[in-house]
Amino acid sequence: MSEAVVKPLWRRLIGFNLLSGILLGIVGFYFGWWLGHQIHAPSLEYFADTNQNDVALLLGYLFAVIGFVAGLGFLNYPFSRMLGGPATQAEKEEGGVGRYFTLCTDHKVVGIQYLIGIGFFFFIAGMNAMLIRAELLRPSPQLFGAGNYLTLVGLHGTMMMGIMTSGILGPFANYFLPLMIGARRMAFPRIESLTFWLLMAAGAILMTTLFFGGFPTGWTGYAPLNDEANFGFDSYIFFFGLVGLSMTLLGINMIVTTITMRAPGLTWGRLPIFCWGAISTGILMVLAAPVLIAALLMVAFDRSVQTSFFLSSGGGSPYLFQNLFWFFGHPEVYVLALPGFGIILEILPVFARKPLWGYRTAVAGILGVALLSFFVWQHHLFVSGLNSSLRPFYMFSTEAISIPTGLVFLAGMGTLWRAKIRYTVPMLFCLAWFFNFFIGGASGVFLSDVPSDVATHGSFFVMAHFHYTIMGGLVFAFFAGIYYWVPKMFGVALNEKLGKIHFWTMFIAFNSTFAPLFALGLMGMARRVVTYPSHLQPLNDWVSVSAFVLGASMLIFLFNVVYSLVIKRIPAPANPWDSHSLEWQLPTPVPVENFERPPVINTDPYDYGVPPVALPPAPPAEAPAPG
Amino acid sequence: MPDVTSQAPESYAETPELHERIDRIGFGLVGGATVMFFFGFVFAYFYLRSLDSNGLWRPAGVEPPSGYGIAIAAALVLSALAFGYAARVSKQGRGGWVVPSGIALVLGLFACAAQAVEYAHIPFGPQSGGYASVFFGWTILYVVATLLALYRVEIAFAAGLRNRGREGSAVPEGFVPGAMYWGLLAAIGVLAWIILYLL
């Protein structure tokens, strides 16, 4: 599949790698920028009187991305095919660390690339949150001012909601899905790598908004502000567009791999629940993300060639954007949540030492959530002039989504019932997930009801709700996954004691940060506004201090990573959790080609506590030949 | 520990059937994503048309030249038929799929060129109301999607040229799924013609 050829360092710097990608990306940006300024058309004349040429900036970003992926080597194979070259499944790859800085078709390398890349942007977005809470220590602007505060809020929300869409599928599904189904690779290895590098390009482009004045819309990018916003909004368009493309390709890869590459005997009824989470998320990605891309391209057209999709004064409508955005946006919430469901239900039986209770019920729950998530988007428009006769349908469809979610909870609780639980760090994160997600889900019922939604819309109540579902649901599952799978990924386990300190600090600080936001919302504190009534300051200060502790808990985690993976490096056993699922049956480190021969799956991966299968008696030994 | 796994006696074999299945499902999903992408423009068309904000949905004089619409749609349909024929022939293991692939490629490029020429002769601009916005947005992105899909047509054609004389044994992978996707995209092109020129 891949040939490991180790070259000297100087030789590795020349060729198709990250360095070339960055250089060609910069060249591409300036080429696009120059090209944009050369284009003259009647609909672009208005640029002549301004410092803002959106065409130039959008073309700059476009050519920067093309240059970046070309420098990484992604265009070599397509060009070879255009010249009639043969189809191949893998690149000729270098061994060693160089693999992590170029196009690599080993799914395990891509998984680790994702883990580090996403961790980097998660850290930056988290720092933005710290700055937001620092600003809110006082009721009036003190650090950044209203405009910069909005940019901070927008950067935090957009980066979290964009990058973290691949927060679990990127690192864990790319790394472990092929191992769990007994495959040697993903169905489309180059596309797998491309999804990662597109996401990194997207993150870098979003950061450049700071050079162009930021953007005032928050992560939702609503019209007409998106048409009117200054230069910096173009980076939002490109960021989310690339994230949407990456998501679509990632989803396609997950689905095709699971359908076509399962090992013999791995029927749908034996598929690990994490894989069900991955493919149901993949379905959402494939069907929802293209609508987002279309909406963003409409914004780009409005801002560049002067169409009027979202301008009432030109025959358009800002509500069109709200509809298109939330047609993507609400399924996206489940793009974030469903992989979390998968991780939690995957890990729970291992530490409960019981079979997963109600496997089919859990699968039905996951698929049910995925299906229903396409029928609820208009609850985000309850206060946006939605025809009142449509409100009951969207209210009931939103409430109905709690039924399949309840099935997932039921499976989890059934698994824990009378179990001999091992309170390891991954298990603690799993248990906390149930607590957090329950609060997030229960508060969501209030937001699906029209009367209470009208009262709380746009307030901190909404913010508390979605942080409980997304951070409480996704990020806790993310950390459960990290503590659970790091021994297989890196060959060493994270320190258990430090892990528990991290968990308890994070869990307490998380609840101390976000639970009071419900109260602040009910008392009328609005989102995305830098000022608030002075009587809300004590509670806001409490929240800010809690948020700083929450941020500090991440430093404990980082310290644990450095301590365990760099300083101590105590080798972990191949299967430290005594798990029955397939990825843990492999040696550590996992061989390049995963399995020498296809594994044959004889049972499901959750048969903890089930008596061993009685093997047929061995045939009698042949009597030795006389003489 | 229970008997979770054993190992098959044979080693991994990546058969052409597996690759064909991967391509078929992959193209099916790309087709689904493409449909959802253009669904955004269909939704925009009917949404903005029903609202008719400030009476600017379609002011007088905003009429695309119908001849271009017919020419583009016809070229797309013929291209899809030619590539579908090529895929069918290749599936039967026969040669003779290179010429129809080339015809499909030329017709697809003609459709894109015709769209570009139409922009030069159209009597309204992107700023001429809601309809004009949808018209330009949809058609520009359709041309981009068409050019990307023509890549698949081109690699089939290029592979055929490179393997002249033994086309029957050198069929590129994913030919049939690629042809189905190209047919889907042509269908979206016909839908665009119906909505943007006829309604």
Description:
The complex is a heterodimer of chains A (627) and B (199). Chain A is built from 20 helices and one strand. Chain A has 627 residues and is mostly helical. Chain A has a single domain, classed as Cytochrome c oxidase-like, subunit I domain (Cytochrome C Oxidase, Chain A, Up-down Bundle). In chain A, helix 8 packs antiparallel against helix 10 (233-260), helix 10 packs antiparallel against helix 11 (273-304) and helix 12 packs antiparallel against helix 16 (425-448). The model of chain A has no long low-confidence stretch (mean pLDDT 91). Chain B has five helices and one strand; from the N terminus they run βααααα. Chain B starts with a strand and ends with a helix. In chain B, helix 2 (66-91) runs antiparallel to helix 5. By secondary structure, chain B is an all-alpha fold. The mean pLDDT of chain B is 91. Chain B has a domain at 87-199. The chains are: A mainly alpha (627), B mainly alpha (199).
Question: Which features does this protein show?
Answer:
heterodimer; A: 627 residues; mainly alpha; Cytochrome C Oxidase, Chain A; 20 helices; 0% strand; globular; B: 199 residues; 5 helices; 2% strand
Give a short summary of the structure.
The complex is a heterodimer of chains A (627) and B (199). Chain A has 627 residues and is mostly helical.
